[in-house]
Amino acid sequence: MLSVMYRMVLSGRPCARGLCVRQYNWSPQQVSADANFHSARSNECPRILITGGLGQLGIGFANLLRKRFGDNSVILSDIRKPPNHVFHKGPFIYADILDYKNLREIVVNNRITWLVHFSALLSAAGEKNVPLARSVNITGLHNVLDIAAENGLKLFVPSTIGAFGADSPRHSTPDLCVQRPRTIYGVSKVHAELMGEYYHHKFGLDFRSLRYPGVISANANPGGGTTDYAVQIFHDALKTGHFESFLDADTRLPMMYADDCLRATLEFLETPNECLTMRTYNVAAMSFSPAELVEEVRKQVPHLSVEYKLDPLRQAIADSWPTSLNDSRARQDWGWKHDYDLPALVSTMFTLMQGLDHRAAKAN
């Protein structure tokens, strides 16, 4: 495991109080493979807990963080049993965000310094079980906020385009505007943004949040979100050659490839506080509709057939969301810049998914 040494200098990148750059010096000193996870010194890497770690982003983000800070610096957690390849790759622990005492013990016993709170019920899934969504997305958040404030943690809680509503500007939606979402998922995320900002001003909590677009990954199956069609199409194109979209052909929504999303999150977490002018930022990469995605996918799978069988619930949700986000503040304050556009996204997804299918077939 490589240890990281940080040197912050005020030059080269714009920020609210000057210009910020992150420079990294890598030490060749190796830490033994059996190093005690519970014996970190205060001048070492951040010690990170990820809740909801078996969801769409948790495993990928744990991999990214472990490459940066070492395998034993990151604890992945969930209430589900992890697959073997996840369990053996680095520390994993059972953590129920609704069990305040359990979560607090994990933070204290493992001397956690960063908490990445991915646990949530997504938009469509939340509408099907509002009491559970309220419990997980709001009560769980309150536990995390209190534990983070009590222990002086850096806390990241992702937000979403679902935090905007029908009264928000639809095009190039800014960071600050009327929100008023109409799903329990969106309401809970607005609540998280406001509570996090309140805890920052009231208690000095280093709270940070990014409003994620629809996130597309080859390593995670659809998980009950309104933008899931943009993942499902790749599975269907390779397996059956037929795709059914639950959204209308012309429904444009902001989207982002998972690697961009995870990199944005890490860069944001590493940005010095003095560079930040707000606690919640929009981040964007591209916007497209099902029809535009189908057109690009057919360049790889020309025989793909498509039907539009609308899901009234998800269509209503999508119609209340922005078609594009204005993320100029993130680009100005901490240098955010996406790498993947739609052609690069589609090409990468097919390359990765065909590789996954090949390895699965070889294993069988």
Structure description:
Strands 3, 4, 5, 6, 7, 8, 9 and 13 form an eight-stranded parallel beta sheet that branches. This protein has a three-stranded mixed beta sheet with strand order 10-12-14. It has a two-stranded antiparallel sheet with strand order 1-2. Helix content is 39%, strand content 20%. The protein starts with a strand and ends with a helix. It contains twelve helices and 15 strands. It is globular and about 55 Å long. It has 364 residues and is α/β, with parallel strands linked by helices. Helix 6 links the parallel strand 8 and strand 9 (206-212).
Structure summarized in a few sentences:
The protein is of the alpha/beta class and 364 residues long. It has helices spanning 58-69, 84-87, 100-109, 123-128, 130-151, 184-203, 229-239, 258-270, 290-297, 312-319, 328-334, 342-363; strands at residues 4-15, 18-26, 48-51, 74-78, 92-94, 114-117, 154-156, 159-160, 206-212, 214-216, 242-245, 253-257, 280-282, 286-288, 305-308. The model is unreliable at 1-42 (pLDDT under 50).
What structural category do the secondary elements indicate?
A: alpha/beta
Oligomer: single chain
Low-confidence stretches: 1-42
Overall body shape: globular
The count of DSSP E runs of length 2 or more, i.e. the number of strands, is: 15
Mean pLDDT: 88
